[in-house]
Structure formats: C-alpha cells, structure tokens
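User: I'm preparing a small set of examples for a lab meeting where we compare how different chains pack in three dimensions. I only have the primary sequence for this one, and I'd like the structure in token form so I can line it up with the others. Please keep the answer compact; I'll paste it straight into my notes.
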Amino acid sequence: MISSPARRHMERALAAKAAASTAPDQLMDGTGIYEQMLLQLANDRGRLKQIQSTEGKAKLKADLLPAYDSYIEGVLEAGRGAADEVITTVMLWNIDAGRYPEALRVAAYALQHDLPMPDRFERTTGCLVAEEVAEAALVALRTRTEFDAAVIDQAIALTDGQDMPDQVRAKLLLARGRWVLRSANDENPPTEQQLIIAVESLKRALTLHEACGGKKDLEHAERFLKKHTASQPTG
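Assistant: Understood. Below is the structure token output for the 235-residue chain.
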C-alpha cells in the first residue's frame, strides 16, 4: 500500500524526534515509530522467507523498501547514532536491490556512528558494505550488466579505516581495477589518472591477498598505462 504524503511526513517527523531523543549508547527500542518499523520488518522478512530465488528476493526488497524511506529520512536527519536494526537492515536490502546510492547514504550514517549489524550477521558493518559492493561489481563484470563504477569508489572511501579481513579489502580494490580496465578500449579509453589508480589499486589488492586473482589485471593495467604515457607529447 502506498502511503499518503501526510503519513510520510508524520513518519519522518516521528522518526526524527525519536532519533534525536535517543542517546548513542542507547537502543531505539521503546519509541513508537521504531517499534512500528520493527513490526513492518518482521512481516517483510516473513514474505522474503517464502521466496527461494535470490533474484526474486531482490525484486521483492525493491518493492518493500519505499515503505521505510520516511523513517530513514527522519533518522538520518536528526539521529545521534543510537543502535537501530531498521537502519542497518534497510542499508543491506538497498544493496541487494541494487539501490546503491541510497545504500551508501545510509551506510555513511551507520559507519559514522559505528552502528553494529544485527546479531545474526557475523560481519561488521564496514566489512559487509565493502564485500557486498565488491561482489555486486564483480558479478556485473562477469555478466556484462550495467553498474556505476563510482559506487566502488564511494564504498572504498566510506570503508577506509574500517576493520575487515584483508581478502575483503582486496576484493573491493580488485573490482575498482577491473572496472577501469573494462573501459580500456579505443572508443572510451580511461584517462592516465584512472589507469594510475587502477594500477595502485591492483597492487594493493595483491599485497593484501596474493590469490585475489588480480595478477593478469595488473599486467594489463600497467601495459595500458605505459602505452598511454608513450602516446603523450613530450615537448
């Protein structure tokens, strides 16, 4: 059901008030709007459990997410960093649904305030953001589907300094290097700066995880960079 503008405004205002009045070391539990969203979340999880297809789950999440938008807006507007399962779950669902700009906008808030993922998740919030974006970018490369490579750069910047296994960081850097190489053709060649970033990213990925699969990519990137440099006027 599509909510009315008046209801969306009320939900946003209630979420902002609840978030502003809850200290960072407290839980959002006990606030009416949060309890309402948790109930919605439980109902939606029930619907998702009835679907076995990963693709089908992603499509349903895309349909479900607008119901949380007003709440998210209110928390991001006035929140002080209280633990919030709705925020972190919706962040992940946005990644699953391919709504990357929205996912990273919520992730910025979650990481700024060190919000933990719900107990059922083994990964930290920073690790989850890095790995899920990296995997989505690499899958898009393998399947030759559209993906905004700027999302990778944003995820790298957002998760800088976040603790995670070296393999996860390497995977994100590998994704950045490979997306630069994807554009390395006569019609849309990467710039020298992009190639430099690709080489640096791939070198760092291999340092972090030698078996990440980026050795050939690094060779290609270095070759493209050398060719690009040689083609530039010297005088």
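A couple of notes for your slides: The chain has a mean pLDDT of 93. The longest helix spans residues 125-143.

User: Perfect, thanks.
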